[in-house]
Amino acid sequence: MGLYQGPRLLDFAKTPSHLQFNKYVLTGYRPVSTAQECLRSLFYMHNELGNIYTHGAIPIIYITLLCYPTVQQTALLAYILLSAYGIYCATTARTNVLRLRAFAWQGLFRFSLFLFRVYGSGVGSPNSLRLFVIMDSLAVVGGVVNIIQIPERFSPGLFDNWGNSHQIMHVMVICAIIYLHWGTLEDLAWIKSFQCPTE
């Protein structure tokens, strides 16, 4: 990867403490950067190049609460606001455990929607729920791998640029997003023939 000559990268010891989440990734850290420098970092090799930050489950809320418009709009707003707060908590977290915990409530929020689909009056395709459970399972596994820092804990320095736990977590999140997509497609196909019951 060499479209842009990036800045001199830092080793773990010279990295600012708020970016020292993994003592087993020894090199390749970006220096503190401006917004423009962050964009440029998409075009040179560093130890976070393979990481993609994605999280969110708006379609699940929308479909599950379809027949309850007021609750639906309130839940969507709450999810968006709490997601913004979760991002703030994750970006200011001092450890991987705290960073993962910043997103744990999102999983609990979705789990409550799954329960509402199964035991309550929530709606959605019967086939989508399985896909959404796989989605969240993949995300949790990725988060745990990131916390326990495998495989780099067994060979410090070997996985600095590729294959470290943080990148594995992001791959798991990408896979989770694919399952979210498939589940959403199931729900959208299902909704074409669904009508909320009249009161």
Automatic annotation (TrEMBL):
Query: Where found, per UniProt?
Result: Membrane
Q: Name one GO cellular component term.
A: membrane
Q: Which residues cross the membrane?
A: 52-69, 76-97, 103-119, 131-148, 168-185
* Major localization class: membrane
Keywords linked to the UniProt accession: Membrane, Metal-binding, Transmembrane, Transmembrane helix, Zinc
Give membrane topology per the record.
Answer: Multi-pass membrane protein
Q: What is this protein called?
A: Progestin and adipoQ receptor family member 4-like
Say which domain of life the source belongs to. Answer: Eukaryota
Molecular function via GO? metal ion binding; signaling receptor activity
User: So where does Zn(2+) get bound?
Assistant: H166, H170
Answer yes or no on keyword Zinc. Answer: yes
Q: Which organism is it from?
A: Stegastes partitus
The family assignment reads: Belongs to the ADIPOR family.
